[in-house]
Structures are given as C-alpha cells and as structure tokens.
Amino acid sequence: MNSPTSAGLLRFGSCEVLPGKRLLRVHGQAVELHGRAFDVLLTLLEANGQVVSKDELMQAVWAGRIVEENTLEAQISLLRKALGAERAAIRTVSGRGYQLSAHAEQPSPRDNLFIPASVSRLIGRESALAALEDSIRQQRLVTLIGPGGIGKTRLALACARNLGSLFSDRVCLADLAPLSTDEFLVPTLAAALGLAPASGSASLEQIAASLIGQRILLVLDNCEHLVEAAATAVETLLVCNRSLQVLATSREALRIEGEHLFRVAALEVPAADADPHAVQAASAVQLFEARLEHGHSPLDAVPMAVELKARICRRLDGIPLAIELAAAQVTSLGLRVVAERLENQLDLLAGGNRSALPRQQTLRATLDWSFNLLADNERLLLRRLGVFAGAFGLEAALAVGVSAELSADAVVKGIANLVAKSLLALQHDPSSVKYRLLEVTRSYANEKLREYGETAATHRLHALYLLEVFSSAAPLWEFGASPRGVVCEELQEDLREALRWTLDEQRATALGIDLTIAALSFWLQRSQVNECLLSANRALAHLASPELFERKVMKLKAVRGKALLYTGATDETREAFLHTLAIAERLADHDHQALAIWGLWAHGYLNGPYQQNLRIAEDFLQHAKQQPNAGDEWVALRMIALSRLCLGQLHDARSGLEDVMRAYPDELRQRHILRYAYDQKAVALCALAYTLWLQGFPDQAAKALKEAELQAASTGHLASRWHVLTMSTCPIALLTGGVAALARPSQRLLEARSWHQLGAHSIGAGQFWGGEFWSGLYHLWQGDPQAYDSIISPALERLGRVRHASYLAPYTSALCTLLAQRERPSEALRLIQIAIAHASNADDQSALPELLRCHGDLLLNAGNADGEALLLRARQIARQHQMKSWELRATTSLARLWGKQGQSARANEELSSLLASFTEGFDSADFEAARHVLKALG
Question: How far is Cα 675 from Cα 634, in angstroms, rounded to an integer?
Fold first, then answer.
C-alpha cells in the first residue's frame, strides 16, 4: 500500500484532515503534524476502522525500505501527541496492530455536482490541487494549460468536487472533445448549465442572463481544438453573469481578459541516482504502481524492480497518460520487457515534429509504442474505431470493423484486448456496455487511418451504419418511441460527424443526403427542429440536379417547411410547402400532399387571410376523406374549427373543437404529433379555451387550459408543451387576470429552456415561441423603463408578421395600454394601428373588437373624440359574433366615457345589464374593472 492521499476532507471525532494540504485540525485549530506521522494517520484513515498490522503500516509509509519496529512506534507517539484530547482514537490492538476507532466521515454527495464521480484517487497532485483551489477562490477564470495527457481534466474535476460547497447552485462539466466544429458549442454549454440546449438562435448573453444570481462553476474541458470559439463563449458568459466562474482546460491559453493561467506540470520523476526511498516517493512512480493490474508483489521493492520503474517513468517524462499506457503492458510483458521496448521505440521515433513540446513528442512516441505492440488485427481495429465521435456499442464496432481482413470473431476479440490494454475505455450503461476511445487515442487512431489510406473506406462504413440505424428507426417514430431510439440518441454526435464528412467535405454527398433524410423523423420527434432545419438546408444545397431526385427534394422541402413554422411563418415557409405540394401531386404521393396542404394552412393560421385559410382547411378535409385510414379527418376538423374561430364564427368553432375532443382516436396521437407538429388534442384544447373565454365562460376556459397542459405533458413532446404555454397559458392568464397574472406563466416559459433538449437544436425558443415578449410585458407593467426597448421590441421584431396572429390580440392591446401609461402614446398608437390594419386585411374578426377598443381608449386618453366611434364599432363587432368578453371590455370603456359625459344612467344601465348576463368569471380582472366603473357611476 502506498502512502495514502486524498483530495477530499476527512473527519473523525472532532478532527479534520485535508490530505491534499497535509493539514490536521483538532477542534478547528490547525495542529502541526508532518512527515511519516501524517502518512501513518492517512493509512489508518483509509482503513476505515479496520485494524492495520504493523507490517502493513511500515510497507505503506516506508515502502521499499527496511525500518525497525520502534521507528513506527515513535511515529505513533508523535501522532497521539498531535491529537491531544483525541489521542484515544488511535488504539493499539495487541498482537495485531493499530486501529483508528472513530471512522472517517466522508462528505456526503452534493446535489449541485453535475460532474463525473471520481473512479480512482488523484496521485501526485496534492500541492497542485491546493494551489488550484486557491486560484479558483481568487479568480473568475482559471485555465489549466499543458500538453495532451498531462492530466488537466482529472485535476480540474478533482478541484471542482472539492469546491462544490462554494458554488451553491451548480458545479458542471462541458466536454468539448466530441465536438468537431464550434457549430454545437452553444448547445453543449446550455446542456451543461442545466438549460440543455437553449435555442437555435439563443445567444450566449441569453443563456448567461437566464442564470443570473446563481453561483455556478463551469468546467470547460478540452478547449484546444475550438479555442477561439471557446474563448468568445467564456468571455461572453463571464461578462453577462458576474456570479459565474469558469475552470477551463486547454493545450493553449484562451487569451482573454481576466484569464489566470495555471500550468499543469508533469509528475515528479526520480533522479537517475535516487535511492529506493526517493524513487518510491516520486509521484510518477506512485501513479505507475497504482495502475499496475497485478498490484504489489514482494519483487516490486527489490532494487532491480525499483530501478526499472524509475527508468520507465523518467523516459515518459512523468506524463500521466503515457505512464498509464506503459503500466497496462506490464501484466503481459513484465517490467524489464516494457522498459526495454519503450527505450527502443522512443529512440526509433524521436524525430517527430520539432516544433512540438518535448512532452508532446514523448506522448506521441508512447502511443506509437503502444500501437506497435498490438497484433495486426488489433491495429486495424483501433484505426477503424477512431471514426466514432463518442461512445459506441459492439454492433457499431462490428459495422466498421468486419471486412475481408477482420472477421466478426476477430473484432469481438480485438475489442476485449484493446480494453485490457487500456486503449479502449469501458462505459457501462444501465442496459448495455459501451466503449470509448480517449480523445488523444482517437486522434492518434485517425492519424493512422490516414497514414494507411483507409480514411474514406472507414468513414463510408461509419456513415452506412448510421444510415441503417436511423432508417430502421424512422418508420417507427410515428408510434412513439422506436426500438432503436436509444441507439439513435447515443449516436447523435456521430451523425453530425458523418454528415460533416459526407456533405461538408463532399466526400459522399449522395450518402449524406440519404442519411439526412433518414434522420429527419428522429430530429422532429425530439423537437430538435433547428438541427433538422440546418441539416435539411445543407442536403438541399448538395442536390446538384434536383429534378432528377424529386422524391428526395420533396421530403426535404416538406420537413424544411415544418421546421420553419417553428421559427417564424414567413414567405419562405409558404414557398417550401408550395414546392412540396407541386412535387407530391406529380408523384401522386398522398402523404406529402396532405403534409403540404396542412403546412399551407398552418402558415395561414399565423398570418391570414382567414377566409382563404378556411378554404385550405376544407381542401384538406376532402383530401383526407380519400385516405380514411390515415385518420387525417380529425386533423381537418381541428383546422376548420380554428379557421372559423379566427373569422369570429364561435358557435361552429366550439362545436368542431368539442367533436375533436370527444371522438379523436388516441391511437392516432403519436402519428399526428410527428406529421403535424403538435399533439392534436392539446392544440384543440388551447383553441377551445380561447373560444370559451370569448363566449364569456372564463372559468370553463381555465379548465380547458388545464386539460391542455396535462394533455401536452402526457405526450412528453416538448414542442407541444411549448405550444400550450405560448398560445394558451400566457394568453388566458392575461385575459383573466390582467398583466399581473403573467408573473408565473411568463417565468414558466423562460424556465422551459431547461427542459431536456429544448434549445439550440430545438424549437427556436429565442425566435418564434420565445417567452421574452411575455416576460417583457410583465416587467414593463412592474415599472421597468427599459423593458420595451431591450426585451419586447427585439422579440416582436423576431416574430415578424406573426406578432399579429389572432391569439396575440390581447397581448397587443395590453402592451399599447402600458406604453401609453409609460408616456409613450405615439408608439402605442403606431403599434395598434398596424395591428388593426393587419387584422382587417386578414379578416381576423376574433381580434378586431379588442384592437379597436384599445385604439379607441388610446385616442380618448389623448383628447381625441374619435375614440368613441371606435368603441362603438368594437362593441358592435363583438355583439355580432357573440363575443361577450370583448363586448364587456368595450362596454366598460364606453360606460367610463359616458359617465364623464354626464350619461351615467345610460352607462349604468348598459353595463349592469351586460354583467347580469354572465354566469361565471366573477373574479376576473374584467369583472373587477366593470364593477369599479359602476361604483364610480354611483
């Protein structure tokens, strides 16, 4: 047993031990205890209450040396003296040895730690760890720099674990090693920070802002290949969030303001003339011994064995990775052969890149040496496995490994051998075993792949394997989870890498296009719409002759249009569906005709005009009747009902929505979610809630909203949950409780970014369905003078024409009212006039009464008598369409005006009569406003 070391705090009785700093505290006071006595204490602590024999203690503390028993007794005496009142904790067990009677208390795991647990103790880094902890306490950005294999990651993670108590909210890891480009840097950071990927257009500023006030330590690992993007990201996060700290690892500095560089040195190696005790004390040798699979034997302490260990560690310059690779070979080859072969190979391959650091040259030599020790079959397999960007299973290894040169049995055997030789790491998942190459080993394997001229062939096998996985999963996503869904999720980074190789590097564009098409359903099922959109655009750009591949173009255009609906219903969205429809009609493809017609309707629902949109919905119904097995008639009924709602035909809209809710077959749910973007029952319930509110049933509307939220949650579909929040939860809260009622719903929208996967690969949280404009309205109401210019206006600009969607009428009126109250009446009038013009052109009867009422109030407040005519028109339209809630608002405004004009009796009569016709909603904000006016009228 080596002298025990541990980075964490250990306790027994009233004593605390910090092994990394070699510090003992008794009753909170530091006590002087050095050298062997401290090592004896650590050895007894590691025994965790078990008796440690005298021989075991002497071997642990004086490994490789012959000492007398009285030397041990002297150190025990020093230890007891240092413990003072706690000296009884060290018990002498007659004839057996010594025992620490009070067990060491390990700190309990903290729920704020989102970093991997330590699988082995950190060796030889006590002083470095203590210094690094001090740096983190004083600096907001510390970058560990050093060559590959030096142990930067392990040191960073050990430090993060030790300092977990300083960061009350989150200690997390973002590993950049799997990323080949900076395209997915932001979602990786978002996931690590608990936001898991934020939005396709979400900025780093938005990510940082969402975490303001939280004490977070972010470990940003393996920055060197993305150093510029990583530097920009870190600088932005630190500037935008003063409570965030970053601990980065990189082979070079990030070179940004405030960066504190911490150079990670190699482990201590013994001098050529060191005595055995000095050799055993060297941290490089301690690591080497700890990694020997056969453990310790009596021969390890003999002079020859000690010298061989020293030679190996010196030759490897104390680089931890190189030492571990060498130790892995000792079991099969023995110390002498390892030392000799290592010497020969280093001499042979010393002429590497002269501009590289010596340790980098040594590491390369170590990898060369390990590679050349493998059998030919193992070398070939290792090279091919380098194509995987992340963890992979045996099936994947067989897909790229089996060939004329390698049988399936040879691949299976080779995997086992590579694991045994520590060139392949095991990763145990709950349901399977996965393998992963260390990043430096993967880079080396890819270099060898290029050297042997096997890159193209192996990447092609890799892409073909992914094509088979995603193609076999695609038809089953419509039924919910696919049997291969877990495999698809695990291979996401490989999918990105394969598409980069096939399409970005144009190595196999036809294969890349097919792979993109195979993955479309996967991305949509997981609501990773932005990644789906980017990939579809890329594939379309590589179709050199679209007319020759119309079916592929049709599939890509259809999904592109669907993805664009999530990020903004622009003319580009409509064009994508028109293109899809034209091809689908030529090919007589019913499914894509239906999808294209639905897409054109969805674009119209967000933009108008609504008479035309109703005709599109009716066309969809006729088309659905031709293929009754698809179940699209239920989707058509919902589409027609929503179109009628926008046209103010509330009775027909409600009837159609209730029919959908009553008879919609549950078995169609998953199919329709994938095909038509959202859960149909959840969307129908949202529309029903709005319809009920317009009809004057706010309590029933709230009940329908609750059912919509439960329905969406039950699907597990992120986009459906997001839809309910934006298109029903927030609007209904605003309608029933006023702006004050947005406090919680708008916060829920912002919190929704932390939903698993919702973010940069997801549904465009910062573009279309973002919560910013809702939360901005609440902040404006609270009195934030910057809320409009800094939050609301940019968010509305991103919404484009969709800001005038029918369901957003109450938002527009509330915003304009607040702007007028905040001394910005001209801006309020400008916005309301634009909204009215859009609603008039779109024939949006469900929005017009409220927009006209708001405009009338704004004019009257500005001293313009024309406002009364607008209020009368608003009431007339509301009555015409039996929109009692809009009628109540317009009548309340009129009653307030008439009271000022001396027509109190008229005002009282009309408002009282209307209030008496309501059967519910008496606690709503509108009822409260009406009662206030009646009270003022006397």
Answer: 13
